[in-house]
Every structure is written in structure tokens, then in C-alpha cells.
Description:
Layout: H1 4-7, E1 14-16, H2 21-31, E2 35-40, E3 43-49, H3 50-58, H4 69-72, H5 86-96, E4 100-105, E5 108-114, H6 115-121, H7 123-135, H8 140-150
Parallel strand pairs: 1-2
Antiparallel strand pairs: 2-3, 4-5
Amino acid sequence: xxxxxxxxxxxxxxxxxxxxxxxxxxxxxxxxxxxxxxxxxxxxxxxxxxxxxxxxxxxxxxxxxxxxxxxxxxxxxxxxxxxxxxxxxxxxxxxxxxxxxxxxxxxxxxxxxxxxxxxxxxxxxxxxxxxxxxxxxxxxxxxxxxxxxxx
Length: 151
């Protein structure tokens, strides 16, 4: 069985919690990523996703220059170890209703794995994802990934 380390990306883009959302979104665009792991005093404390920006900034018409990443990030940060099986990672995603998991080893950020990465890379995961999808009440954002890549 494959492990998280076999699928994760290792070039994780980060941002400080005290950066404004405009700069964070510019960073996402520059690196062409959908999330940033958020740091505070060198420690990872949360994650800022495109969905966070849409739900907590755009819809609420908050000022991009005045709103700090730390005020709208998702927290607490849910992480997985690189030695975890893909099944463990997917189960954690379903239980916590999230699509992205930073990968941490010895308190160091070493990668990121997403539901999309798993669905694309591992055919055995398809059956496991289907079985979990039948058991959990999922948000639409997760259903879209499952229906597009899995079903």
C-alpha cells in the first residue's frame, strides 16, 4: 500500500499570518497553488485556501489590504505524517471534511497531499473513497472532486 510520502508534493508554499490577504492571493497566483500553509513565528498554525478567501473575505466584502491571513485562515491545522497510509490520509480528510493535508515529520513541514492528488494517483483508493463517500455527509466541494475523479 502506498504511503503519503509517495504522493505528496514537497514544494509547499507558505505565508506569514500577519500578511494581508491581497499579498497572500498574489502569492497563490504567482506559484499557481490553491492554498498556503500559514506560519506564525516559524511554526505552522493554519492553512489559507481559495475557499477561505471566497467565504471569509469576498462574500463578506472585507478589505483585502486590511484583512490579515491569520484572521481568515482555517485552523487548527490538521496534518498527517509522511509514513501514514493513503487510506489513513483519506479517512482523516473525510472525518475533518477537508481536501488538503500538510505533511509533517518531526515538527517540520515536508509536503502537502490533497484529495485530488490521491484520486488521480491511486486506483485502489477509488474504491476506498467510494466506500467512505457513502458513509459521510460531504460538503459540495468534496463531492465535486469525488464525482469528477472517482465516479
